[in-house]
Amino acid sequence: MECTNLVEKILNKVRIWPTRHLSFAERAMLINSVIFGMVNYWASIFILPTLVIENLTKIFRNFLWGGIVEYSTTPRVAWRTVCLDKKFGGLGIKDVTA
Asked: Which 3-state string (H, E, C) describes the chain?
């Protein structure tokens, strides 16, 4: 399936970034700009399967809260709340499922 390449490319990027000791705000900015840009491009070409979208959301969530892909602690805030606009109390992270 072509969409597994998208997940692999995003995983490769996310695995490199923690070596740079990024702050929470920098991780949020990378998710919104770089990763969501890649997802948006692929979604304009393919219809992304639900499993791929769930995997991407999991990668986003784990990277945002822990700075790594394999984060095991429970997130501090619900993902839907994180995806709200800043004026509504969220962080402004773009939601892949929307």
From this structure: CCHHHHHHHHHHHHHHHHHHCCCHHHHHHHHHHHHHHHHHHHHHHCCCCHHHHHHHHHHHHHHHHHCCCCCCCCCCCCHHHHCCCHHHCCCCCCCCCC
Total of domains in the chain: 1
- Residue 1: what pLDDT? 57
Quickly tell me which residue has 């399936």 as its tokens: 1
Report the distance separating Cα 98 and Cα 96, nearest Å: 6
31 in any annotated domain = yes
Q: For residues 20 and 3, what is the distance between their CA atoms, to the nearest angstrom?
A: 28
* pTM as predicted: 0.80
Give me the phi and psi of 97, to 5 degrees please: -75, -15
